[in-house]
Amino acid sequence: MSEREIISVTVQRGGPDTPQRLQVFEVPAFESQTVLDVVSWIQQNADPTLTYRFACRVGMCGSCAMMVNGVPRWTCRTHVNKVLNGGKIEIAPLRNLPVIKDLAADMDPFFDKWVAAEGRHHPTRSRDDDIAAINPEQPERVVASSGIECINCSICYSACDTVAGDPDYLGPAALQRAWTLYNDAKDADKDTILDAVSGKGGCHSCHSMGSCTAYCPNGLDPLSAIAGLKRATTQRFFKGRAK
Amino acid sequence: MTPFHLYMAQRLSALVMAPFVLVHLGVMIYAIQGGLTAAEILGRTQGSVFWFLFYGMFVVAVSIHAGLGLRVVLSEWAGLRGTALNALSGVIGFGLFALGARAVWAVTAGGV
């Protein structure tokens, strides 16, 4: 190879205490280069003060999501070749979340809503009981299993225009978690889950635009999960509460 | 009224409106074949309990459905919250009902 190609990378810098600005870096192109590799190259070779977040580098931890050319992506599994636009890339922190600094978004609202949607286990048994046998082919279990590969990367939350318009909206990931637990035979408090997703900013705020499902890097379907919660709450409205 | 109740009100009002819209459009297309005057329309609707109930319920469903739909638009696009949101969407809902009820009354009960 003769002279190495150069990528022009525009990075959003700054945070709540410093004015946000765009900074352009010239980054050498490498074979099989990911967007996270580009960000790491900048931090290691051009500006050590660049702040960003990553951990596993293999698409399991959900730490490195950023806006790439205006679209939320997991940067460790996004090849530069796939997103290069005329030799340029724009990288910014995740949308719909506060910025801590540079490319690091504050994930607190995302996880707070996870808790607000009752995205926690309500056990049916104590540690002294035997483990309940679960048939993996049971229809409810199949539905629950379809949502459990969520890595909490917040890409769906950043892609969601309803979150952008309604800060109270719980968002696709938290609601999908609620739907997973609702279908889990080992969860004992389904009414509490439906109550949690029926309040202000609950599943009924969703406009079914489907950006969550379109952008989920793991191929999950929060849109259908939210539709399931709408169905379940509506059925409870007509049939009355369980028990 | 919880957000869930508002959601149910909007869905149920849509359910009510769907057949009304189809009948309204169907009758309109059927009735204008060969021309139609205002006097002919009023001749059929005035004094008709059926058309009073038909368009009366239609107006109620539209007022609920449009009022709640615009409430969401005002919240997400205009950033209205709390009392301002409830007041403005209430004015829109009741305003639509007043305009629609006046028209229904004029067409079905007027002249009786």
From TrEMBL, chain A:
<dbReference type="GO" id="GO:0009055">
    <property type="term" value="F:electron transfer activity"/>
</dbReference>
<comment type="similarity">
    <text>Belongs to the succinate dehydrogenase/fumarate reductase iron-sulfur protein family.</text>
</comment>
<keyword id="KW-0408">Iron</keyword>
<dbReference type="Pfam" id="PF13085">
    <property type="entry name" value="Fer2_3"/>
</dbReference>
<dbReference type="InterPro" id="IPR006058">
    <property type="entry name" value="2Fe2S_fd_BS"/>
</dbReference>
<keyword id="KW-0004">4Fe-4S</keyword>
<dbReference type="GO" id="GO:0046872">
    <property type="term" value="F:metal ion binding"/>
</dbReference>
<dbReference type="InterPro" id="IPR050573">
    <property type="entry name" value="SDH/FRD_Iron-Sulfur"/>
</dbReference>
<dbReference type="InterPro" id="IPR001041">
    <property type="entry name" value="2Fe-2S_ferredoxin-type"/>
</dbReference>
<dbReference type="InterPro" id="IPR009051">
    <property type="entry name" value="Helical_ferredxn"/>
</dbReference>
<dbReference type="GO" id="GO:0022904">
    <property type="term" value="P:respiratory electron transport chain"/>
</dbReference>
<dbReference type="GO" id="GO:0008177">
    <property type="term" value="F:succinate dehydrogenase (quinone) activity"/>
</dbReference>
<comment type="pathway">
    <text>Carbohydrate metabolism; tricarboxylic acid cycle; fumarate from succinate (bacterial route): step 1/1.</text>
</comment>
<keyword id="KW-0560">Oxidoreductase</keyword>
<feature type="domain" description="2Fe-2S ferredoxin-type">
    <location>
        <begin position="7"/>
        <end position="95"/>
    </location>
</feature>
<keyword id="KW-0411">Iron-sulfur</keyword>
<keyword id="KW-0479">Metal-binding</keyword>
<dbReference type="GO" id="GO:0006099">
    <property type="term" value="P:tricarboxylic acid cycle"/>
</dbReference>
<dbReference type="GO" id="GO:0051539">
    <property type="term" value="F:4 iron, 4 sulfur cluster binding"/>
</dbReference>
<dbReference type="Pfam" id="PF13534">
    <property type="entry name" value="Fer4_17"/>
</dbReference>
<dbReference type="InterPro" id="IPR025192">
    <property type="entry name" value="Succ_DH/fum_Rdtase_N"/>
</dbReference>
<comment type="subunit">
    <text>Part of an enzyme complex containing four subunits: a flavoprotein, an iron-sulfur, cytochrome b-556, and a hydrophobic anchor protein.</text>
</comment>
TrEMBL record, chain B:
<keyword id="KW-0349">Heme</keyword>
<dbReference type="InterPro" id="IPR000701">
    <property type="entry name" value="SuccDH_FuR_B_TM-su"/>
</dbReference>
<comment type="function">
    <text>Membrane-anchoring subunit of succinate dehydrogenase (SDH).</text>
</comment>
<dbReference type="GO" id="GO:0016020">
    <property type="term" value="C:membrane"/>
</dbReference>
<keyword id="KW-0408">Iron</keyword>
<keyword id="KW-1133">Transmembrane helix</keyword>
<dbReference type="Pfam" id="PF01127">
    <property type="entry name" value="Sdh_cyt"/>
</dbReference>
<keyword id="KW-0472">Membrane</keyword>
<dbReference type="GO" id="GO:0046872">
    <property type="term" value="F:metal ion binding"/>
</dbReference>
<protein>
    <submittedName>
        <fullName>Succinate dehydrogenase</fullName>
    </submittedName>
</protein>
<feature type="transmembrane region" description="Helical">
    <location>
        <begin position="12"/>
        <end position="32"/>
    </location>
</feature>
<dbReference type="InterPro" id="IPR034804">
    <property type="entry name" value="SQR/QFR_C/D"/>
</dbReference>
<feature type="transmembrane region" description="Helical">
    <location>
        <begin position="52"/>
        <end position="73"/>
    </location>
</feature>
<feature type="transmembrane region" description="Helical">
    <location>
        <begin position="85"/>
        <end position="105"/>
    </location>
</feature>
<keyword id="KW-0812">Transmembrane</keyword>
<keyword id="KW-0479">Metal-binding</keyword>
